[in-house]
């Protein structure tokens, strides 16, 4: 199993994303001696081997089922152990396009965090691109490195544990795009500038949740000769689709009448039940497809500050 | 942070220019997108000699390549396109001495001094007019009207500068810049698709090298361009188009290499269905044909074989994703292509009208072969002025199509 190529059948050692519900997904590495338990029962890993990705399997006590999905970077963002704040789909997508990433792109990322965005980046720049990613937290860097190896990405990723504020990136004239997810990106911009391939256009993105960070970042980008400084915010809103009956005012009148009739009958027959009146007024109204936004939705994630690196010129 | 400049014209640097080296190409320099039609034939010829090194190639301006030119909104001069060929993208040029160009230093933004001035005291009443005629004339001369904050002054200066400057910027055609051009110029051509929705489609559908994608494109090739670029020539895309001949017009502005074009196969709706049998090709003995007939015969034959092999590829199935931005009912499209998709593969459908997708969403829920259909709507700030209040919606069965045996 690799994040860079699909396969059809599940084998031992493969990563499977177990889909229980939309909110409940679980990454499983298939090991025939293991079982996975949840409130729907027990699932044997050995049952998964040989199944096609996308298959549905039932639990052993028959109380429930789940689907076995092929991992993608987007599914991984849902199930990645949250070691840090991660990027979400709207930001990931917009950054990828704005930084002009495609197969062959060479990208610098700092910090690596949980490595979730690194997965998306590497997917896009494969098979001939490269990602240099830096993380100052040693444990996180180790964990991310392990993930990259397990997911078949390590050939395309160079990960280093380093404090980039202090020692910079020590990469020169190499990358096409830079992504900085740091508390103080302005302290890394000068070093990032040297990392760019010097004779071609390049793009940088700084990811900061607060507007004060954006202001300092813009000032620093400007001082360092970056141009086209623009800030974006991406918002995504889910729409819940429902089917609802639409009653008319006549239905409202019928409803009252039905109630009155019921009362009258009850008085007359002293509580003896009569179903005829009920069915007489009950008419199925036409259904309508409607949508609404969820009552609670994710709002602001971060501001995306972009700028362009200009190629140096021969005078 | 400014977003008010727009890409005004598309310029195509064609072979024509190459031939006319050192000749003034005044009047020809900026080809509007309508005029580009004339260039089409030349493009086809050039198609064959595509440069090998793609990556480094795209950041320099080459001849036989499309270039977007960012122009000031006001009067504009003349320049020789030969003067920008071979230069890296990114810099802006100023026109001087009638038709000479020089690189100018780009200025990101100027510092704005903060003041206490605001519009609190501004009341729309002529009697409150405290300025004399002379004062007003003087202000007009200075180019600033009324009481303004430093921020609005800076904005105003910027606008005036943009109008009267003779500065232009060659812009590298990327998915973003090409989208920006068409979205500004003719949004209905691309079904009013916004760049954030296009980006999300590509991400949600996990478009990458070594995948086999199905793309239903009624956005004149914008969606196909995105998919082709992310495949980078590794993998295959079948693009389904409306009408008899394909209209993936936007594709050509992306300056794709031969390698990337090779991963594209094209079918019309008629060719998608098994029961719509193609008229069989009349194979002939080639030695009986004249040279002219032979040329025609070969073209016909290649075309027939191309369609037949693409149909075979489709019917064989095993596709990794389905992206739809079409005028046709999504349910009918799904019904057509679902048999050709593998299990656990993403489907992403775009539509400008949410209602269409609501029907699809309900259909998907009922049919039980899809997992987790979701409709999402997204916005990107700042964009109020550019989107004109039009939202896009899209549905993405993010998680997958299920195995049909289950």
Structure characterization notes:
The complex is a heterodimer of chains A (315) and B (406). Chain A has 315 residues and is an alpha/beta fold. Chain A has three domains: 15-71, Roll (Vcp-like ATPase, Chain A, domain 2); 75-235 and 298-309, Rossmann fold, CATH 3.40.50; 249-292, no CATH class. Helices cover 29% and strands 27% of the residues of chain A. Chain A is built from nine helices and 14 strands. In chain A, strands 9-8-7-10-11-14-12-13 form an eight-stranded mixed beta sheet, sandwiched between helices. In chain A, strands 2-1-6-5 form a four-stranded antiparallel beta sheet, with helices on one face. In chain A, α3 links the parallel β7 and β8 (130-135). In chain A, α1 (73-79) packs antiparallel against α3 (116-125). Chain A is flat. Chain B is of the alpha/beta class and 406 residues long. In chain B, strands 8-7-6-9-10-12-11 form a seven-stranded mixed beta sheet, sandwiched between helices. Chain B is extended and about 90 Å long. Chain B starts with 8 loop residues before the first strand and ends in a 5-residue tail after the last strand. Chain A: GO terms for molecular function: tRNA (adenine(58)-N1)-methyltransferase activity.
Q: In a few lines, what is going on in this structure?
A:
The complex is a heterodimer of chains A (315) and B (406). With 315 residues, chain A is an alpha/beta fold.
List descriptors:
heterodimer; A: 315 residues; alpha/beta; Vcp-like ATPase, Chain A, domain 2; Rossmann fold; 3 domains; 9 helices; 14 strands; B: 406 residues; seven-stranded mixed beta sheet; five-stranded antiparallel beta sheet; 13 helices; disordered C terminus; TRM61_C (chain A)
């Amino acid at each position: 199993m690799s994040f860079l190529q699909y396969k059809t059948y599940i084998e031992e050692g493969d990563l499977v994303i177990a889909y229980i519900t939309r909110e409940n997904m679980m990454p499983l590495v298939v090991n025939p001696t293991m079982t996975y338990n949840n409130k729907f029962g027990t699932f044997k890993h050995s049952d998964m081997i040989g199944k096609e990705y996308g298959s549905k399997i039932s639990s052993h006590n028959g109380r429930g089922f789940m689907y076995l999905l092929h991992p993608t970077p987007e599914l991984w963002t849902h199930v990645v152990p949250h070691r840090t704040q991660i990027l979400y789909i709207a930001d990931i997508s917009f950054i990828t396009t704005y930084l002009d990433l495609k197969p062959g792109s060479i990208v610098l990322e700092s910090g690596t965090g949980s490595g979730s965005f690194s997965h998306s980046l590497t997917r896009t720049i494969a098979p001939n691109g490269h990602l240099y990613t830096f993380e100052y937290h040693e444990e996180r860097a180790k964990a991310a490195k392990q993930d990259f190896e397990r997911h078949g990405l390590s050939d395309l990723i160079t990960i280093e544990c380093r404090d980039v504020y202090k020692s910079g990136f020590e990469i020169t004239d190499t990358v096409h795009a830079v992504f900085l997810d740091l508390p103080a990106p302005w302290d890394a911009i000068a070093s990032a500038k040297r990392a760019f391939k010097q004779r071609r256009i390049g793009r940088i993105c700084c990811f900061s949740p607060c507007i004060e960070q954006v202001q300092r970042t813009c000032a620093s980008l400007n001082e360092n000769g970056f141009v086209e400084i623009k800030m974006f915010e991406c918002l995504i809103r889910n729409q819940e689709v429902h089917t609802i009956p639409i009653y008319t005012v006549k239905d409202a009148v019928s409803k009252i009448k039905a109630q009155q009739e019921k009362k009258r009958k009850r008085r007359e027959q002293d509580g003896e039940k009569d179903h005829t009146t009920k069915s007489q007024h009950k008419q199925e109204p036409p259904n309508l497809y409607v949508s609404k936004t969820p009552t609670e939705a994710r709002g602001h994630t971060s501001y995306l500050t972009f700028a362009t690196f200009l190629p140096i010129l021969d005078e | 942070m400014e977003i008010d400049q727009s890409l005004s014209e598309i310029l195509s640097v064609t072979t024509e220019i190459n031939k006319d080296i050192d000749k003034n190409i005044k009047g020809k320099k900026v080809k509007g997108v309508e005029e580009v039609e004339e260039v089409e034939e030349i493009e086809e010829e050039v198609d064959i000699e595509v440069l090998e090194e793609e990556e480094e190639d795209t950041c320099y301006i080459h001849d036989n390549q499309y270039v977007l030119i960012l122009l000031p909104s006001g009067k504009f001069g003349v320049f020789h396109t030969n003067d920008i060929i071979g230069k890296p993208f990114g810099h802006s040029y100023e026109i001087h001495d009638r038709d000479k160009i020089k690189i100018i230093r780009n200025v990101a933004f100027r510092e704005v001094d903060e003041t206490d001035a605001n519009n609190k005291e501004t009341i729309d009443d002529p009697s409150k007019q405290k300025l004399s005629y002379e004062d007003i004339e003087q202000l007009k001369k200075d180019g600033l009207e009324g009481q303004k904050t430093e921020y609005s002054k800076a904005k105003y200066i910027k606008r005036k500068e943009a109008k009267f400057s003779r500065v232009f910027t060659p812009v590298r055609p990327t998915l973003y810049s090409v989208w920006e051009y068409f979205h500004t110029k003719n949004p209905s051509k691309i079904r009013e698709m916004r760049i954030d929705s296009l980006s999300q489609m590509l991400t949600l559908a996990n478009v990458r090298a070594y995948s086999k994608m199905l793309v239903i494109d009624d956005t004149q090739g914008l969606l196909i361009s995105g998919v082709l670029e992310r495949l980078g020539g590794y993998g295959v895309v079948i693009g389904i188009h409306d009408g008899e001949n394909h209209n993936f017009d936007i594709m050509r502005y992306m300056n794709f290499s031969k390698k990337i074009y090779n991963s594209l196969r094209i079918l019309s709706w008629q060719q998608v269905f098994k029961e719509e049998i193609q008229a069989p090709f009349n194979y002939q003995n080639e030695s009986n044909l004249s040279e002219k007939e032979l040329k025609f015969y070969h073209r016909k034959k290649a075309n027939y074989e191309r369609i037949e092999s693409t149909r075979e590829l489709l019917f064989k199935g095993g596709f990794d994703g389905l992206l739809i931005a079409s005028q046709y009912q999504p349910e009918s499209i799904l019904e057509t292509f679902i048999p050709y998709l593998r299990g656990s593969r993403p489907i992403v459908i775009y539509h400008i009208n949410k209602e269409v997708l609501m029907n699809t969403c309900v259909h998907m829920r009922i049919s039980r072969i899809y997992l987790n259909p979701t409709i999402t709507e997204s916005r990107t700030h700042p964009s109020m002025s550019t989107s004109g209040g039009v939202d896009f919606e899209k549905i993405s069965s993010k998680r997958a199509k299920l195995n049909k045996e289950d």
